[in-house]
Hints:
Blueprint: H1 2-31, H2 38-64, H3 77-81, H4 86-113
Helix pairs in contact: 1-2, 1-4, 2-4
Amino acid sequence: xxxxxxxxxxxxxxxxxxxxxxxxxxxxxxxxxxxxxxxxxxxxxxxxxxxxxxxxxxxxxxxxxxxxxxxxxxxxxxxxxxxxxxxxxxxxxxxxxxxxxxxxxxxxxxxxxxxxxxxx
Length: 120
């Protein structure tokens, strides 16, 4: 049980790092006034890390079971498998809400502090 928790925390940490890295790319895009900026890149990078992480969790769960079986995974089932990992699912939701709500609030506050009109 402890190992499974650590594996899920590793997926969450990977998502957070991916979101920070994606945000840095998105920030550069925002500076150049290009579409798909800061928040979009953060969400896409986080979702990518989430799917890779859930795939890893599925493989590790299979390895701890009967090693004689062959692992067959439908890639579309990875999205469904997120719900089997409650800690990962709740954390992914919290990170996404932070990006959508928290950063939007922060952008408005910075805009007001810099004398820019708030966005509608």
